[in-house]
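Re: weekly structure request thread

Next one in the queue (412 aa):
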Amino acid sequence: RVVPFGRFVESVSFIMPSASSLLARRLLATALLIVTPVPLVQAFLPPSTHSSVFPQHRSVSMLLSSSSSDSDGTIDSIKSSIKTTKQSFQAAADEGFGTKAKNAAYTCSVGDIIVPLCSNLTQRQELANRGIYAGVEYKVCELSIDGQEQDTKRIQTLDGQPTNAKQTAKALIKPAYPLRDNLERNDWPVSVSLDEVPLWLSRSTYIAGNAVGTLAVSSFFVAVAAILAFFVRIVSVPTPSMLPAFNPGNILLVTRTIPIGPFRPHVGDVLFFNAPPELESTVSNLNLGESGSEVASTKGKQFLKRVVAVPGEKVGVKQSEPYVAVSSKDPSAPQTYRLDIIGPYARPEIFDSSSWDRPPSRLAKNEFFVAGDNGYRSVDSRVWGPLKDKYIVGTARLVIWPLNDFGPIGPG
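Done, posted below.
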């Protein structure tokens, strides 16, 4: 899905207003686009942005042509943001990060942008009641220190002032940008003793820290998305070959299968796998009916089938039903078999007769015999032979949609 990235970035400020720098919003937007389904992102954005952020029923060429000007502006904006942020990082490197950051209250000048930070919730609320909000950028409008005989002396900068003067310095400050209505006041600028706030950061340090924090959060979500994409799949059931366990249209949760030791698939598991070449070669030359129509290719497609037999077991087919020779530790015990009743295929004549009747043969160490629960509509290992483990993607664990079918995968 093609999304005008510049418009989406601006909409991110609705989700995370504290991401004050443009680069921070772009990083957050990238993570959200990667890990979040479009309908979920739409749920968190104002309805008025949906048509511009998520255009529907438009071709890629239309989107590219209609958003070319947006793209040019976005590229220039990104370059400018990167340059500004680079400068901020260079300045912040001199001032320090986190707990090692220098207190800008001791070096600020009139006109500087400074940001108050306070971790004590009680003190934070007291400051907020006076219009001093943690994490908000403020412009220094006026600085003053106590002069001789308790006189107040206005100054332009605290840099170079005596230590005792810095500790008693006061400032008139106002937000550097408009705030939300519930935070705005009619008495800007407000007065504050700089030592009332535990830490003041310069704008450069704040932007750099904000970018680092946002990058860390974005990287976390991208890492989680990558892990989930590898270990978890959401798949849809397209055909009735697995009735009654699955209905066509069911949505399943599939987890990655590792065909090693105890993690190997077991009898009764439903495997999600890529079409093996044996399946493609079996059906590619089929001719259905007098019309001569050919069966569609299976290349690049995935299938769901249930495990009937695992590596090392002997499995055969009799009257379309697969059966497995059950091993016994007692050599004198009579041979017993495990029989899976799945039913005959709807058109048995189009396949070789050995598909429906053949003696047991032992599966290799990397082979599984799989079959559909609804043998009437399933082309499976009866026809094209064992499934090699290298084609297995995962194991179906849960029906997640529709809700009336929600639950673990049932037995065959």
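Residues 107 and 159 are 4 Å apart (CA to CA). The chain is about 30% helix and 25% strand.
Next request, please.
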